[in-house]
């Protein structure tokens, strides 16, 4: 009886840790907040304690070879597929803040916060200045 109880307790604990450990890291389908269409797949990963996101696939075949022509600096004229668009987010409670997100279509860099909405939705907010002045998108886990 003790072995069965201990085994059950370990399984429950492992399930809780794996669910929370997954967090925002993974592959996410981006949804355009203006058109409602799926645009790309972004892989969010952790590097040196910060969160980054890279476009790993553009879903519209006509835009697969698009470049970031309006970007400035090191990202100028780079292919959007493969481009790191989320940079340097840090965990702050249940959200990630103090980083940036690049809109490759406009070539603009915005302050960014991301937060899980359940386990399979990610609220992504880009803004200039104050968080309440900006745009939000909800991405879905792949």
Automatic annotation (TrEMBL):
Q: Which residues form the DUF2147 domain?
A: 26-141
User: Where would one find the signal peptide in this protein?
Assistant: 1-21
What's the superkingdom here? Bacteria
Q: Which Pfam families match?
A: DUF2147 (PF09917)
Q: Which residues form a coiled coil?
A: none
Tell me if Signal is a UniProt keyword of this record: yes
Keywords for the protein's UniProt record, in alphabetical order: Signal
Q: What is this protein's name?
A: DUF2147 domain-containing protein
Q: Which organism is it from?
A: Flavobacterium arcticum
